[in-house]
Amino acid sequence: MSDPALSIEGxxxxxxxxxxLESIDMSVEPGERRVLLGTNGAGKTTLFNVIAGDLSPTRxxxxxxxxxxxxxxxxxxxxxxxxxxxxxxxxxxxQSVRDNLYLAALGARGRQWGPLPVDDLSEPMQxxxxxxxxxxxxxLVDRCVATLSHGQRRQLEIGMALAxxxxxxxxxxxxxxxxxxxxxxxxxxVLALPRDITLVMIEHDMDVALLxxxxxxxxxxxxxxxxxxPADVRVDPAVRAIYLGGEHA
Length: 249
Ligand SMILES: Nc1ncnc2c1ncn2[C@@H]1O[C@H](COP(=O)(O)OP(=O)(O)OP(=O)(O)O)[C@@H](O)[C@H]1O
Hints:
single chain; alpha/beta; 6-stranded mixed sheet; L-isoleucine transmembrane transporter activity; transport; nucleotide-binding; P-loop_NTPase; ATP hydrolysis activity
């Protein structure tokens, strides 16, 4: 049997007296679409921060395709197949779409932004154009990021994560803040991602979550309180209490 794409065992994070995560266990299969649902402060972003290496856990471990990530710093995790997006925009405002994609691809290979031999430049530049097309920005490759709409930025952020050629992609509320007109395009883009990329996505919107997910993990107060298929989760009493009982912020 192959290793899970993501394996989390006994993961805990404390901030002083606050237990942000309490003994999380989770296993995500290769190719799976897993959505994390939960109230504000449930611990979803903290979990992403630990997986990405932005935060060290107080206890427990995380493995990517069987490889323990504990000793791998955040900046090297792209090289073992991990990419993430953030809730808030993480793009270079004054650069073009193409340059942002190019920088993301170089960063994942451990290269620095700077003069490179022409031979080295051409392949990542071509790749940047391909990545722009994958996220619906083919016509905007030369546009300065500062002029993009909010939705186009979100597309670019996913493009930058894809440029790192991840095996596991963590998407932190990719549709957050989008207008009703912008959301369908972004959801379509997420649905179209190839299955050789395993996806773990934080999403507040239950309808979006259930549309994208193969399985859903519902978090509350640093714990996973429900786990299952979208159909199971929709009728789970704990989830209904959170989403229909007015607890959802
Ligand atoms: N750096 C930190 N220092 C202290 N407490 C923190 C820190 N980061 C997060 N927390 C706390 O940990 C808990 C979990 O926060 P987290 O941001 O992971 O929740 P979340 O589920 O992502 O919520 P949201 O949907 O609002 O982003 C919260 O109580 C939060 O206040």
